[in-house]
Amino acid sequence: MSKTADRPPHRSIPATVLGTRDERLAEPQPPRAARIAAYVLFFLLGIAVSVCGSFVQALWPPVGVLLALAASCATFYGGLRVTGTRLGAGMPVAGWFLAMLLLIVPRPEGDNVLWSNATSLAWLFGGSVLGVICATLPTRTSWFPGVPGPPR
Hints:
Elements: H1 3-6, H2 13-18, H3 21-25, H4 32-59, H5 63-83, H6 86-104, H7 118-135
Helix pairs in contact: 4-5, 4-6, 5-6, 5-7, 6-7
């Protein structure tokens, strides 16, 4: 017997960390009550990540933008993986956008949280793109709101 037959097949780093597409789609879906609780939790987490990221990206440019985008992406993808639905990724994105809308509006005193500079625009655009990417990844259900489809 050769030595190559004894070794497991080589997996890339993303496949090792995140699993393959077939492995992700074969995971069991959580019960409905757990999914609803997770939707609410990830919505609130999306708001928190948006607010914190808005201050971090301005505090430590340009590393702060990358750190804030990494936290946003982890939140969006975490919602997708925990619930197994696209709505699981959509809820933190919705919370993220809601907080961004409130942070973009200038205050009556003239203060702004987000300015029209490169880091703020990269934070807004990058977070939007990451949210769309995570919300369109393959899921364990065949329909958007998370209603399980027929067994595979």
